[in-house]
């Protein structure tokens, strides 16, 4: 990997935070309110994609906005179920000391993302979440926007994610990818670069 890395872009769920329990509780609430028969495991297989894209993949076509709002509200209500992965705070501090720019590129909506950053005191200012006119992963739009905002080119940027959709987004953006093995993605897929825990990021860069 190019050691002259100037920008590290990070996925949120499965990289910085462990939010699986929170997701499960939020999805179960959605199932109950809207009488859906889709189990959490089926929903979880699509994590990494924008929420409404997941709903469409699950052939849920009605009440998309209401379902999304219910899920978000339930997620916020159970923020106490979300944990920061070990070593995140110290590693981010180390990378900042090394003058490496940091950004978060996530499929989570911006409101919850900002609340979580505040809750865990994560010192990252650049957040790129799904928004109008910006296609979600695996399209490159979010990553390209982040690079443009921080005036960094693809050869000096990496994206850290845990899902196949993250890898595809990085590839479509022309940047290197680091897979977080401790996240939610399938373990059988072999990636060129990977980390077993967040603190390994300081060693690989």
Could you tell me the CATH topology label of the largest domain: Rossmann fold
Supply the CATH superfamily name of the largest domain.
HAD superfamily/HAD-like
Taken as a percent bin, the fraction of beta residues is 5-15%
As laid out across the biggest beta sheet, the strand order is 5-4-1-6-7-8
Major pleated sheet: 6 strands, parallel
How would you characterize this protein structure?
There is one protein chain. The protein is α/β, with parallel strands linked by helices and 205 residues long. It folds into 2 domains: 7-18 and 83-204, 3-Layer(aba) Sandwich (Rossmann fold); 20-81. It contains 9 helices and 8 strands. The strands form 2 sheets. The protein has a 6-stranded parallel beta sheet, with helices on both faces. Helix 6 (110-119) links the parallel strand 4 (101-105) and strand 5. The chain is globular, with a radius of gyration of 16 Å. It starts with 6 loop residues before the first strand and ends with a helix.
Quick structural overview:
With 205 residues, this protein is α/β, with parallel strands linked by helices. The protein contains 9 helices and 8 strands. A 6-stranded parallel beta sheet has the order 5-4-1-6-7-8, sandwiched between helices.
Provide the descriptors you would attach to this structure in a database record.
single chain; 205 residues; alpha/beta; Rossmann fold; 6-stranded parallel beta sheet; 9 helices; 8 strands; 41% helix
């Amino acid at each position: 990997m190019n050691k002259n890395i100037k920008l590290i872009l990070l996925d949120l769920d499965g990289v910085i935070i462990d939010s699986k329990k929170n997701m499960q509780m939020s999805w179960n609430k959605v199932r109950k309110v809207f009488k859906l028969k889709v189990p959490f495991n089926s929903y979880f297989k699509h994590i990494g994609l924008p929420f409404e894209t997941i709903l469409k993949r699950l052939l849920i076509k009605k009440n998309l906005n209401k379902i999304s709002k219910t899920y978000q509200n339930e997620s916020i209500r159970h923020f106490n179920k979300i944990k920061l992965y070990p070593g995140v705070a110290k590693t981010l501090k180390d990378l900042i000391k090394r003058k490496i720019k940091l950004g978060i590129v996530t499929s989570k909506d911006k409101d919850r993302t900002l609340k979580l950053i505040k809750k865990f005191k994560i010192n990252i200012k650049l957040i790129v979440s799904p928004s109008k006119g910006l296609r979600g992963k695996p399209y490159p739009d979010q990553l390209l926007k982040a690079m443009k905002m921080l005036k960094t080119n693809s050869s000096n940027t990496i994206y850290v994610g845990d899902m196949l959709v993250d890898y595809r987004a990085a590839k479509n953006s022309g940047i290197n990818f680091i897979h977080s093995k401790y996240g939610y993605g399938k373990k059988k897929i072999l990636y060129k670069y990977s980390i077993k825990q967040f603190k390994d990021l300081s060693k690989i860069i």
